Structures
1.
Amino acid sequence: MKYLSICSISFICLFFISLTCFVLSLWFMSIDFIYFVEWEVVSLNSCSIVMTFLWDWMSLLFMSFVLFISSLVIFYSKEYMSGDININRFIMLVLMFVMSMMLLIISPNLISILLGWDGLGLVSYCLVIYFQNVKSYNAGMLTALSNRIGDVAFLLAIAWMLNYGSWNYIFYLETMKNDISMQIIGGLVMLAAMTKSAQIPFSSWLPAAMAAPTPVSALVHSSTLVTAGVYLLIRFNMMLVDSWSGQFLLLVSGLTMFMAGIGANFEFDLKKIIALSTLSQLGLMMSILSMGFYKLAFFHLLTHAVFKALLFMCAGAVIHNMNNSQDIRLMGGLSIFMPLTSSCFNVANLALCGMPFLAGFYSKDMILEIVSLSYVNMFSFFLYFFSTGLTVCYSFRLVYYSMVGDLNCGSLNMLNDEGWVMLRGMLGLLFMSIVSGSLLSWLIFPTPYMICLPYYLKLLTLIVCLIGGVIGYFISNVSLFYVNKSFNNYLLSYYLGSMWFMPYISTYGLINYPLLLGGLVYKSFDHGWSEFIGGQNLYNNLVNYSRINNVLQSNSLSVYLMIFVLWISILFGVVILL
């Protein structure tokens, strides 16, 4: 029973620290207070290493949400991972993951952020390959190498910060935002954030990371790894306003949102559908952030974290009961067999769609109304609203396949709602999925936004959601994969369903030519020229030369006389020439 105590202690500690952070954030928010702590770790010959921590309402509120979700995920893991003999190791890895995120949240210094940033990358690799098989190893390598691109950009940003004499970026953002060096740093940080938050063209690792255990997916996709990039850009938001980087990020994040929404409508893997919905919501956060509304991005970041963790937890319970099957075509009628899990699943799904008065509604509706009010071009406007429609579309499709109709699996099944430890973890998040939107809107925006729009533009969000739901129902009845078996239609559906071929470009596309070149080098050099001028042939030549040398030096009188004659003839030749 030792592992139960580790899970329980972790849950209790994280939960109470989360409550403390939440109360502190309310206090800091009410008195508009920022606490800046510098801890001198070591000082040697006037050279000191200083760790800097920034405590303000934003960092404390985000920490409270991360710790709350982490505590419930660990509590949920107690039953979900109960069959694993290495559960202690699993819980330790999850705690390391959370600690890395904490370090990233409270650091206003690029060096200390790098510790948390790299900690997230390293521990995420260990968690993705936790179930050790070829698919997990491939997914882990794709995740690690995609994130290394951003890590390199982050290291370059640290190098550029040497221009200012300190790595505490928070001191320079406002005063130096028009300086070319700070714009370069902002661009590098944006690249790092794009890799961590899986924006185009680095999107392929996010669905691949589904090889990790479901509790890890719940943590990664809600409040830790993928939100690190968004949070970092929220801190760097001044660099995005009225700049080329903000415009570029708006285009890329809008396309990411659109691409993920379309891809989810062609997917049949339960966890991958939810992963693509995360990608879509990350695009939404990034796009509104690039327009300068950082508080809105932060608001949606928090509300999304709660219902996305709940979605993954419900998916984990369903997968457990479906005998580890993730194909939604084999599901059906789950609302009859698993009523409580299905209720949580549907509430989380409706919150994701923006159902009025659930958590997602307050943030998504405000974001879309602000976009309608802002000076934004038609293409970005279309991406925002069409992607929102796609969100409702794949959510309804998911509910249709899994909750409605008859079970498409074997007739002998053990579907039930008896996992009370998992259910308690889910019910904690269910409550937050309902109330967190209104609660946070009162806290973050103490004075309400006055958004005055024409009647039909005000209703556009609701209309788009309704149309998306209807389309989702229809494409569930007649799958687009089988509408027409002509080559063009199949290729189009394959293109849209595979994230615009990004997983293939990120793997085969990048590695194919270096491997071909490596094969040619191996054939030409290792098995070609090097056989003659290196390796075995070099050894044979040295042996032959040694033998000749041995003959010359074996005190043979005839050889000495012959060399003497040669030497004399050379001397005579030289004398004659001179």
Note: The CA atoms of residues 247 and 466 lie 30 Å apart.
2.
Amino acid sequence: MMLSEYLKSGSTTLTPRKGMSCLFSFSHVKNHSSYTPSSTSTGPKPSPTLSLSMMEENIETAEFIITKWDPNSSSYTKLTSIFQSSRKEAKQLLKSVKDLRSAMHVLVHESSPSSKLVLAQNLMQTAMKRLEREFYEILSANRRHLDPESVSSRTSIGSCTFNGEDEGGSEELEIVGGSITEVERVSALAVADLKSIADCMISSGYGHECVKIYKVIRKSIVDEGLYRLGIQQFKSSQIHKMDSEGLENIIMNWMDAAKIAVKALFHGEKVLCDHVFSASETIADSCFYEITKGGATTLFRFPELIVKNKKCRERIFWQLELYEVFSNLWPEIESIFTSASTQAIKLQALASWLKLSDSVQSSLSVFESTIQKDSSKFLASGGRIHPLTQSVMNLVSSLADHHGALSDILADYPPPKNQVSHFKSPMADDGSTPAVSVHLAWLILVLMCKLDTKAEIYKDASLSYLFLVNNLQFIVEKVQQTPNLKLLLGEDWVTEHTKKLKLYASNYESTAWTKVLSSLPEKSSETSPEMARECFKRFNAAFEEAYRKQTSWIVEDSKLRDDLKVSIEQKLVPRYQEFYDTYMVMQSGEKNLELLVRYSPDDLGNYLSDLFHRTSTSVSSTTSSSLLASQRCLRI
């Protein structure tokens, strides 16, 4: 979903989560699957069929296993993990807690001796201390196996169901949808154990202790992951002091890091958190928020700091690339930070996304204004392509490569209707003209209007037209060679401006060669010898003047250069050939004929081949400064 679509949907609050794919789909340890955990310590209501004597027996049974694994005892169990040394006894401990909880409720309702209730309460506290310690040790020992990136990468493996140990003491691990490696097996068992302990502690009213441990360890893992990705908390003053190269480096790093952080780090942590605390969605959401809020807020706030910086606002492509990162990641951001507790994180991401959109719009306005206000009197020598043309078209072509982001950014900001009438572009499915097409065509039109103004600086009208020919040829060629730009503007735009290019070329030929052509008689056969001699004199002077000027003019496009020379030759040489042949018959005996007839028809073709070829000389200081100024003002 693009930003404009998201905003039009009116969805500024988080939508209910339908569920996320988990790395593993674990069942409870065997013989406990029928038990549904509760989020309170009240426990299930005692069954009327359970006798007081049976409850007292359950307490005695629980006392044996719980005392054995008392973390404060002096036995070897004090230093041993029950889940690592004996999964069978781990299952028994969890069952003992369940039975103990049931017994305590019966004792309360049956008004049993307080000593039994006190014993049960003490045993429950001992069991919770052991499970709290086991929970910590499993999390700590499996930091490498349970890092969010690894968890996220293994979501495609399929589903695994750990069924604890069978009666023979062997572990049973069902694999659904694919094979599993030993590392993944260890990870699966660790997650199953964490979930079993969390279910047990939450149901027994000790969820706070469990969550506290989880938050501390998992937050350190997420923060460490972000640190390794180079994500750090910047202040506006730090961004302001950075040079352009430093800014570009941290922006490029952020774009790479953001993809990993969202798709692997945060997604993996969400998967793990949702599974471990599946007994309580509220606890899972709250826990995930506490673990990720600091790192995620820092990550998503970075683009907001960037657009506040003047150096960054001058770099529209930095902003567009950051915007595209958000566009690509938004579906994941929405699905990961979907609960009410994580709304603040999602809103921070949305705020940065909106600010990037506003900044791009502002930069485009500045770009347009820069073109319109360009008042440099720089003359492109020989009528060649102006630096402003090159800068603007290079930037417009690059903008076209970001048409996806621009389409979304400009969707709600169409240009005035009078701008649309200046060109024809491809229609959208609904018959409308894409806003991005209109904006890019408008920028080119603004450039062409500015070039018309700059053409007036030339004192020679024919050179003014040649200047326009060169620059419009560059513009049309740039559009044709840039697939995205050509697609956005359409074939009609190319056809229309190709016609305009031919009109400029025709105007150039008329103004540059009319004097030469008019020096020749309309009908050579009706010309007297005296008139012919005057025609030759006028032709020699006019041709030499045109040749002298135009050998210093430039046409950089080879095809355009050849087309112009061929067109001039086709207009000039045949008329001169006719006049030349007629006069040479009339004046065959005249002395010093070579002084009067300086050029043969073949000579004209040779001289015309020299036009528009002047090699580039070193750029003067004035030209250089103008070029740099144009590039600097358009570097956005």
Note: Residues 52-205 form one domain.
